[in-house]
Amino acid sequence: xxxxxxxxxxxxxxxxxxxxxxxxxxxxxxxxxxxxxxxxxxxxxxxxxxxxxxxxxxxxxxxxxxxxxxxxxxxxxxxxxxxxxxxxxxxxxxxxxxxxxxxxxxxxxxxxxxxxxxxxxxxxxxxxxxxxxxxxxxxxxxxxxxxxxxxxxxxxxxxxxxxxxxxxxxxxxxxxxxxxxxxxxxxxxxxxxxxxxxxxxxxxxxxxxxxxxxxxxxxxxxxxxxxxxxxxxxxxxxxxxxxxxxxxxxxxxxxxxxxxxxxxxxxxxxxxxxxxxxxxxxxxxxxxxxxxxxxxxxxxxxxxxxxxxxxxxxxxxxxxxxxxxxxxxxxxxxxxxx
Length: 338
Fold this sequence. Notes:
Helix content is 45%, strand content 17%. The model has no long low-confidence stretch (mean pLDDT 86). It has helices at residues 4-20, 26-32, 39-51, 68-78, 86-97, 102-117, 170-184, 192-196, 205-224, 250-256, 259-266, 317-337, and strands at 55-56, 65-66, 120-124, 133-142, 145-152, 157-163, 230-233, 275-278, 290-297, 305-312. It has a five-stranded antiparallel beta sheet, sandwiched between helices. The chain is α+β, with helices and mostly antiparallel strands. The protein contains twelve helices and ten strands.
């Protein structure tokens, strides 16, 4: 275990390196921070931190920089989450409140996160596997053609055209709409197939073929739309950090193009807590020079998806964690109210 003083020295090194982008020396530390000890003592503490792998010396400098292990200890023990100021909170709320539908919510969230953190923002669409049905609308377009509209609790809207095997009257359509919603509204997508399997039997023989066709389209929609979708923004922000990537930024950009990689980075949406993965903790080699800060969002107490940011390990962790958490909270409120 590190002593309290050495933890303070590590905290000061991380803060100075993140702020100045320059390796940190003992003289600068004692001048900038009230550590209460001599430069010689600080040098000894830095030597101990280096021996234990928390800081390292770049080849070209007399100063030290944090390692992945040093950042990890900083995040776990030393960094509080920096709260957003009242003006920042109002700006977030005003920006997100203007959204007109789910695509707009996700798009605005990506832009906002990228602006607030000056990192790459990644937002996962709410997963239908964790969503519930808000309403199913059936609209007659022609005697044998129906539009099916599926609306989820997270504001997602899916539309499908259904060509029926026979004409289907308005009264029958209204009956089907009412019976369908009485069974599936407020229920999880995964429960829907079982809830509607015997529904055709409630109709006259001549209408059962059409009812079965509508239900088949509904169930196909649930299956099709369970695929995970992401939106990413702010990739250009990485160009500001060129010197933070040892050789080239290209592996990072290639990794960001892989949706499967990003979904794995964000983690399971059911885990709603804050996750910070630093450097080599990221399993994908191209992202070993980055950190990923992610958190779950959703309506009620349950996360339906994740959002977060990707940036260099030399990151303002308290500020980034605060921004990610605040944005997730507001997106969850919007989903709950939509």
